[in-house]
Specification:
The protein is an alpha+beta fold. The chain is built from nine helices and nine strands. The strands form two sheets. The chain has a seven-stranded mixed β-sheet with strand order 3-4-9-8-7-5-6, with helices on both faces. Strands 1-2 form a two-stranded antiparallel ribbon. Strand 5, helix 8 and strand 6 form a beta-alpha-beta unit. Helix 7 packs parallel to helix 8. The longest helix is centred in the middle third of the chain and has 22 residues.
C-alpha cells in the first residue's frame, strides 16, 4: 500500500506534467516488458547527465551507498563462522543472489514496497532473504529438486539487507547483515512440524550465542493471528519451550497481534550486549509456501539474527 506522502508526490508530479493518472496508467495499462524498456531509457538518459563531480556530491548525501562501519574481515569471519556452525548442525547454506524478483516482499504482505529499493528488469534489491529462500524451496518442491517427504528441509544463508527508513541511529542502520534459517515441511498431528522446527531453530541460536558470546539468550513468545486453533497452538508451543529450554528465560505474551508477517506466534530473541538488553533476532511461522504451492498443508518457519550487533 502506498503511503500518503507517496500518493501526494505522485499527484503533484502528474499535475506539474499535465498528465493526470500517469502512475495508474503506467502500472495498469503498460505491459511489463514495455515498462522495463521505458525505465531503461529513462535511467540511461538520467545517468548520462551525471558528471563525476556530481557523483561525489550524491555519494556524500546518500547513507545507503556508504560502507558499513564494522571491520570487513571480522564481518566475513562471523558470516563464515555461523554458516559453518549451521552446516555442522545439519543446515546446508545457500548463497543467494543480491537481486530478488520485483514484489517478492510485498506480494506476501511482508514488507511495504515503499521500503524496498526497486530496480529495473522486474527485479529489486533483495531486502528479505527469508522469502527468497521460501521461493527457492517452493520451486524445488515443485520441480522435484527438493523433498520434505521424509524429513523437513532446513536451509540457511547470510545476507546484507537494505530498506528505506525515515531515520538512523546506532541500532537502525542504512543496511544490515543477518544470518537466517528457513525450515519447510508438511503439517503433522499435534503441531508436530511446528514444535520440532521451533525447537530446532531456538536450540541452534541459544547454543551458538552461549558458545560464542558466553551468555544466554532470553525469549519472548508473542501470540500472532493466523492459526485456526490459535489458543491450542500457542499454548502447545509455550509448553514445549518451557519443557525443552530449561536454562532460557521465557516471557509469554498472549496478546494477539494481527500482523501480516508471522502466523500463530513469534519468538523474539534478546541478548545482553555491552550491558544493555537488545532484540537480536526472531523466529516465526509464515504462510508463504502455502501460497506459492497452493497447498494448505505446507508449513514454513523462518528465523533471523543480527550480524552487525554481534561485533559491538
Amino acid at each position: 500500500m502506498d503511503s500518503p506522502n507517496t500518493n501526494n508526490i505522485t499527484q503533484r508530479i502528474e499535475r506539474e506534467l499535465g498528465l493526470p493518472s500517469l502512475a495508474e496508467k503506467l502500472s495498469e495499462e503498460v505491459s511489463a516488458s514495455d515498462f522495463t524498456s521505458l525505465l531503461t531509457g529513462v535511467f540511461a538518459a538520467r545517468a548520462e547527465r551525471i558528471a563525476p563531480s556530481e557523483m561525489l556530491r550524491l555519494y556524500a548525501q546518500n547513507p545507503y551507498a556508504k560502507p558499513a562501519s564494522c571491520s570487513a574481515s571480522q564481518y566475513r569471519w562471523l558470516e563464515a563462522d555461523m554458516l559453518c556452525e549451521a552446516e555442522d548442525y545439519g543446515i546446508p547454506g545457500v548463497l543467494l543472489s543480491p537481486a530478488a524478483l520485483f514484489g517478492c516482499c510485498s506480494a506476501f504482505g511482508a514488507v511495504s514496497q515503499n521500503k524496498i529499493l526497486s530496480a529495473n528488469r522486474n527485479l529489486e534489491i533483495l531486502s528479505d532473504a527469508t522469502n527468497m529462500l521460501a521461493l527457492h524451496i517452493a520451486a524445488g518442491l515443485k520441480d522435484g529438486a527438493l523433498s520434505h517427504a521424509g524429513s523437513p528441509i532446513h536451509l540457511c544463508t547470510t545476507h546484507r539487507h537494505i530498506r528505506y527508513q525515515a531515520a538512523f541511529d546506532s541500532w537502525m542502520l542504512p543496511h544490515f547483515g543477518i544470518f537466517t534459517i528457513v525450515s519447510a515441511g508438511k503439517s503433522r498431528s499435534s503441531y508436530g512440524f511446528e514444535i520440532d522446527a521451533l525447537l530446532f531453530h531456538l536450540r541452534f541460536y541459544c547454543g551458538y550465542w552461549l558458545r560464542k558470546h558466553g551468555s544466554a539468550l532470553s525469549l519472548t513468545l508473542n501470540r500472532r493471528s493466523g492459526y485456526k486453533d490459535g489458543d491450542g497452538f500457542f499454548h502447545r508451543a509455550a509448553e514445549a519451550l518451557r519443557e525443552n529450554l530449561h536454562d532460557i528465560e521465557i516471557v509469554i505474551d498472549e496478546r494477539e497481534d494481527h500482523t501480516t508477517y508471522y502466523k500463530g506466534l513469534q519468538a523474539t530473541m534478546h541478548a545482553q550486549i555491552n550491558g544493555r538488553s537488545f532484540e537480536i533476532g526472531d523466529v516465526g511461522f509464515t504462510d508463504w509456501t502455502q501460497k506459492l504451492l497452493n497447498n494448505p498443508r505446507e508449513r514454513l518457519l523462518t528465523s533471523a539474527i543480527t550480524l552487525d550487533r554481534q561485533m559491538l
